Amino acid sequence: DTAVSQTPKYLVTQMGNDKSIKCEQNLGHDTMYWYKQDSKKFLKIMFSYNNKELIINETVPNRFSPKSPDKAHLNLHINSLELGDSAVYFCASRGPNEQFFGPGTRLTVL
Amino acid sequence: DAKTTQPPSMDCAEGRAANLPCNHSTISGNEYVYWYRQIHSQGPQYIIHGLKNNETNEMASLIITEDRKSSTLILPHATLRDTAVYYCIVTANFGNEKLTFGTGTRLTIIP
Questions:
Q1: Closest Cα of chain B to A89: distance in Å?
Q2: Which one of A28, A56, B7, B28 is CB 3.0 to 4.6 Å from A48, fit for a cystine?
Q3: Structure confidence by residue, pLDDT tens digits, B92-105
Q4: By the CB < 8 Å criterion, does A27 face chain B?
Q5: What residues contact B73, with CB distance under 8 A and at least 6 apart?
Q6: Residue numbers in A near B85 (CB within 8 A)
Q7: Do B46 and A99 touch (CB under 8 A)?
C-alpha cells in the first residue's frame, strides 16, 4: 500500500491555466506538507497543515492555495500558472520521527 | 535552524562503507541532526536522526562528534541502489518541523 500518493504524476499545461494536484496519505498522520523542487534541484517547503489547519506558509504567491478537506488529504490548487511554476511538487506527511514523501508531481508550464 | 555544509559529491566502491560528512558548527543544544536521501526522480526518504548520541538503524549509522559541530552518516555496505543525493538537516522544530534542504552530497556507488 502506498503511504503518500499524489495525482497526477505528470502535468503539462499552458500559462494562465488553473490546475490542481492531489495528495493523500493513509498513515493516519495529522500534519502534511507541500514542497517544491525547482530545476536546480533545490527543495523548499511551501505549506504545512496540521489537522486541516494551516501552520506554515513560506511566502508563497497567493496564486497557490492549499486545501485540506480532511487530515488525510492536502490538495494544491494553482491559479494563473506561470512559466516559473514549472517544478516537481512533493507532498509529505509527518510521522513521529520523520516525514514521508510522495512520489512527486512534475508540472510543466508552456 | 543551523546551517549545514556538505561536500557536493562523493564516490564509493560497491560493498565498501560510505562515510558522508556534515558540518553544523552553529548547531544549538536543542537541534537534531536529520539525514534524508533522494534517489533520482523520487521523493526524499528519511534515513536516521540523532541529538547527541550515536544512532544506528537498519539503513545506516549516525556518528555525532562530542561538540556536536559535525556528524557522519555511514552506510556500512554500499550498494548501487544507494546512489542518491544525501541531505544533512539540522532542525529544532521537532513538532511540526519544516525541513530546510541544502544542496546535499551526491553519492555515486561504483560497481
A1: 9
A2: A56
A3: 865 457 788 889 99
A4: no
A5: B19, B20, B22, B35, B47, B48, B60, B61, B62, B86, B88
A6: 41
A7: yes
